[in-house]
């Protein structure tokens, strides 16, 4: 019997790779986007294939390396379930308007002054009076009498 492998991805990128670029490449390679792609990079182990043969494992490993991601390859034992036995989670969408997480209160600043908001139209800064302009320098001018 041919050896079987479990392919697991934990959101790890290869050294020197930018996570956003790897995410984009891997999403295109796996034809996954949106929330499903975000779930791959959440850090929790995600089983890509639960019971892959050697050729399939090599293809997936090459695809992940080309994208810049680390794919963990684990041997499958007879006691572990195969792909057929592994069921995807049954996810449901919550109805519109349902609050899934209670908002946490905003943190209070420590040692900050008590600021208030001025009503609309309030002048916050008065224009400082401008100093009178300097008189022009007329020292170079002189009056001459004109002959009649």
Structure write-up:
The protein has a domain at 5-75: 2-Layer Sandwich (Ribosomal Protein L30, Chain: A), CATH 3.30.1390. It is built from 3 helices and 3 strands; from the N terminus they run βααβαβ. It has helices at residues 19-30, 35-40, 54-67, and strands at residues 5-13, 46-52, 69-75. It is elongated.
CATH class of the domain at 5-75: Alpha Beta
Specify the number of helices.
3
Q: Fraction of residues in helices?
A: 10-25%
Tell me what the CATH architecture of the domain at 5-75 is: 2-Layer Sandwich
In terms of structural class, how would the helical and strand content be classed?
A: alpha+beta
Strand count, sense and barrel status of the largest sheet are:
3 strands, antiparallel
In which order are the strands of the major sheet placed? Answer: 2-1-3
Structure summary, number of beta strands: 3
The CATH topology of the domain at 5-75 corresponds to: Ribosomal Protein L30, Chain: A
| Poorly predicted spans | none
Q: Report the β-strand fraction as a percent range.
A: 15-25%
What separation lies between the terminal Cα atoms?
A: 130 Å
Order of helices and strands: EHHEHE
Please state the average pLDDT score: 82
**Cα-based radius of gyration, to the nearest Å:** 35 Å
The CATH homologous superfamily of the domain at 5-75: Ribosomal protein L7/L12, C-terminal domain/Adaptor protein ClpS
What's the overall geometry? Answer: elongated
Topology:
Layout: E1 5-13, H1 19-30, H2 35-40, E2 46-52, H3 54-67, E3 69-75
Antiparallel strand pairs: 1-2, 1-3
Helix pairs in contact: 1-3
